[in-house]
Amino acid sequence: EWAESGSMYFMKNALLAVLVISPLFGILSTRVVHSRMSFFSDALGHSAFTGMAIGALCGFAEPAWAAVVFAVVSALLLALVRQKTHVASDTAISVFSSAAVALGIFLSTLGGQSFTKFNNLLIGDILSVAPGEIGLLALILLGVVILWVTSFNPMMLSSVHQALADSRGIRVVWKNFLFTAAIAVVVTITMTWVGLLVINALLVLPGAAARNVARNLPQYHLVSVVGGLVCGIGGLLVSYYLGASTGASITLLLAVWFFVSLLFRTSR
């Protein structure tokens, strides 16, 4: 009934958002999984939460923009630390992630403030998405696709063998910075709709499932995008008819798809 014209525009907006978000996460997921950055993307979510708390504390009308800036800066600093120091990646990510979430909680409860106003960030509400925000997401998707088309081979080579990429004259550091910033922006903008608790799963599960069944790189990316899109639409329908969280519903379907893909992997 919500698909009928002239009614329930919030569901139509949510569907449009899913149609944009799912391919976006599907594309980024292949890079996250291939580069073993799943923990890194989780740390970006914590940084985005801290940026949101800073924006609210400063009285910004749109705290999300403060969250975008803080998440991008944190992502670039973390990438720089990983690139320039000998600290293990998991150690550096754990330090940044713990510090970010602790700072966010500290600022959001400063002066005895209630944390409840940030509860929506943890669970998310895709039904609150506005048409203008969908347009912004579409522009981000277009930018990510352009980045993917123009930089796919250099980024893939840097993921496989960074020293070889350096010897070929590829600016690995700048490619990594650009990709890291793209993940930070996507995580920050979609956090209020998907939910901080499950957003990392959307950056990992599509690519992880696709890796189990794909036989080459084109299949890998195609299966990741299509799998994310199908689970995204299915999760929206499940959440509507069962009255559950949309982000959690999408994540559960992606998890089911991942375990099914494991069966295909073990049967080959």
Throw out a few tags for this protein.
mainly alpha, globular, 268 residues
Tell me the structural class: mainly alpha
Helix share bin: over 70%
Order of helices and strands: HHHHHHHHHHH
Please mark out the parts with pLDDT under 50 across 5 or more consecutive residues, or reply none. Answer: none
Q: Give the overall pLDDT as a whole number.
A: 79
The N- to C-terminal Cα distance equals: 42 Å
How many beta-strand runs? 0
CA radius of gyration: 19 Å
Largest sheet: none
Shape: globular
Helices, by number, come to 11
How much of the polypeptide forms β-strand, as a percent range?
under 5%
In short:
By secondary structure, the protein is an all-alpha fold. The chain contains eleven helices and no strands.
Describe this protein's structure:
The protein is mostly helical and 268 residues long. 80% of the residues lie in helices and 0% in strands. It has helices at residues 9-34, 38-57, 63-84, 89-108, 119-123, 131-160, 162-167, 172-194, 199-213, 217-242, 246-267. The longest helix has 30 residues, at 131-160.
List the helices and strands and how they pair.
Layout: H1 9-34, H2 38-57, H3 63-84, H4 89-108, H5 119-123, H6 131-160, H7 162-167, H8 172-194, H9 199-213, H10 217-242, H11 246-267
Helix pairs in contact: 1-6, 1-9, 1-10, 2-3, 2-4, 2-8, 2-9, 3-4, 3-8, 6-8, 9-10, 9-11, 10-11
